[in-house]
Design a protein that fits this description.
single chain; alpha+beta; four-stranded mixed beta sheet; 17 strands; 31% helix
């Protein structure tokens, strides 16, 4: 209600580590080369937080970093590029002990050494045992509802009041383990039938080629597609998933309340987005990775309290991407957008949401996790336009390696037109454009 909601916001790669690198750098994976969980950004020099700091901003990072995040030496180097650092190792945790080094760190003078010191048993499960904190944790504190809001307050306490600030808050939720929700939400959505899209059914799941059905979590996705019971596994799982989202909602509220309390709400821009989408049984899938809409889309909200009333509560249907976040932040700050960034500033769309922005974008997901099932992820690339989507499964050779969907006519992607003779020229044109962009974006 206070800003602009982008109804066609997409990811250039739908997986956390790659997407977070793209958000920081404003680059496609083809350029920043982060395609897995162990590759580092070669340089932080042209990322938005470093550029802002060089231009007089007080900068902070809180939560899941996600890029080579098990490498403590690399995280220490990343931390040194910020004024305030509370970046977490690995996938981050839902629960920490109150005396954990990550919790007690002041995140400024000790920002390069604020690693988790919780018991190893708790660290392995991201602090979660079933739907509560690991019993080895002493006086456990919860991520979204307790220690992240506390870290946000610490950042605002520590900041240099003579400088503008940029704080990046990176939540773990709604990532697994899905039992990581706060106890206050434990009874929410009980006996609720979680909405399901029309493509959550056995027929659509079995339509998928065998190599996709054998991809990571394929059996789990098929179970969700088949399940129609009120208290079956699908509803049970996504009730917990919704509780995780409630935790994020709570934390965002805490941020807004804190800004208002400190007199900062009228001059602080909020950008809210996500690093990937998520399947809940659509097409028989669970997780993300593939180029289907459920995986490809992410929320994008931009609220500038200084904007005129006419711009508040508006929507925009132009296609925006995760690589647009960095350029947008720099543009807001009046900092020159480096040529190496491949995204575009969204600022023109805030003033004129019907203004033309982009016609197409390239998609790539090259992380395969393991070479063979059950932990294998099928690699894919593709091209998305306003109305059409072309997907190529790069390691396949048969006719099922290509998909073509008319999104405006078939939004649930149940009719693959790749073998339709009437769409031969379109398939060839999109395939050609995909290969062109593949080269252009390096």
């Amino acid at each position: 209600a206070e800003g602009t909601r982008f109804r066609n916001s997409f990811l250039t790669t739908s997986i956390c580590c790659v997407s977070r690198a793209s958000i920081l750098s404003g680059q496609y994976a083809r350029r920043h080369h982060v395609n897995d969980f162990k590759t580092q950004l070669a340089s932080l020099a042209n990322t938005y937080p470093v550029l802002l700091r060089q231009n007089g901003y007080y900068t902070g990072f809180i939560g899941k970093w996600g890029v080579d995040a098990n490498n403590k030496e690399y995280l220490s180097r990343c931390a040194a590029e910020f004024d305030f650092w509370a970046g977490a190792t690995g996938q981050s945790a839902y629960w920490h002990a109150a005396d954990c080094n990550y919790i007690t760190s002041n995140n400024t003078t000790d920002r390069t050494n604020c690693f988790c010191s919780c018991p190893p048993a708790a660290q392995k499960g991201d602090g979660v045992t079933k739907t509560g904190p690991n019993p080895t944790l002493k006086n456990p504190v919860h991520a979204e509802t307790e220690f992240m809001p506390a870290k946000i307050r610490s950042f605002l306490d520590a900041r240099d009041g003579g400088k503008p600030f940029c704080l990046s808050v990176s939540f773990k939720a709604p990532h697994g383990p899905i039992g990581g929700f706060a106890p206050r939400f434990a009874k929410d959505f009980e006996n609720e039938n979680i909405p399901r899209r029309p493509n959550v059914n056995e027929q659509e799941a079995l339509r998928q080629p065998a190599f996709l059905r054998a991809s990571l979590h394929g059996d789990d996705g098929l179970e969700l597609a088949r399940d129609t019971e009120l208290n079956g596994p699908r509803n049970q799982k996504f009730r917990q998933y919704y509780r995780l989202i409630e935790g994020v909602d709570f934390a965002v509220g805490e941020i807004l309340n804190e800004l208002a309390k400190r007199g900062l709400a009228t001059n602080t821009i909020i950008i809210f987005t996500s690093d990937n989408g998520y399947f809940s049984g659509e097409h028989g899938f669970l997780g993300k990775w593939f180029m289907h809409e459920e995986s490809l889309r992410a929320p994008m909200l931009v609220a500038d309290p200084r904007a005129p009333a006419a711009q508040k509560g508006q929507t925009c249907d132009e296609m925006v991407l995760n690589v647009d976040v960095g350029p947008t932040i720099l543009d807001f700050a009046g900092v020159k957008i480096p040529a190496v960034m491949q995204g575009q500033s969204m600022l023109p769309l805030l003033a004129a949401p019907t203004r033309h922005f982009r016609d197409e974008f390239f998609y790539e997901h090259l992380f395969e996790f393991a070479p063979k099932p059950p932990n294998h992820i099928e690699r894919s690339e593709g091209l998305r336009t306003a109305d059409w989507k072309y997907t190529l499964y790069v390691d396949q050779t048969g006719p099922a390696r290509k998909e073509l969907y008319h999104i405006s006519a078939d939004p649930f992607e149940t009719n693959n037109l790749a073998a339709d003779p009437q769409q031969k020229s379109r398939l060839e044109a999109m395939s050609k454009r995909h290969l062109e962009m593949r080269k252009e974006l390096k």
